[in-house]
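ok, trying the design again with the full structure, not the truncated one.
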């Protein structure tokens, strides 16, 4: 999946988190949500969206950067035993 680039990532995967702000892939865009009572497990978002902050298109020259951040986020949020 990751070898095929940004476009091969499934929609809904978490790209980035900071505090209660979560960025999620949606097509060629990233949607930023303010969350309430949530967690991220292996890149999957589980919780309540308080509000949608913005949606922005990912430029072609930034897709690899967003892909790398998605990989870091996925493996940083591995559920620990």
């Amino acid at each position: 999946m990751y070898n095929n680039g940004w476009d091969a990532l499934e929609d809904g995967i978490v790209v980035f988190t900071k505090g209660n702000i979560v960025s999620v892939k949606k097509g060629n865009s990233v949607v930023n949500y303010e969350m309430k009572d949530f967690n991220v497990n292996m890149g999957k978002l589980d919780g309540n969206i308080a509000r949608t902050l913005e949606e922005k298109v990912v430029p072609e020259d930034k897709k690899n950067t967003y892909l790398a951040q998605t990989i870091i986020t996925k493996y940083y949020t591995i559920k620990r035993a």
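Keeping the full-length input from now on. The longest helix spans residues 63-76.
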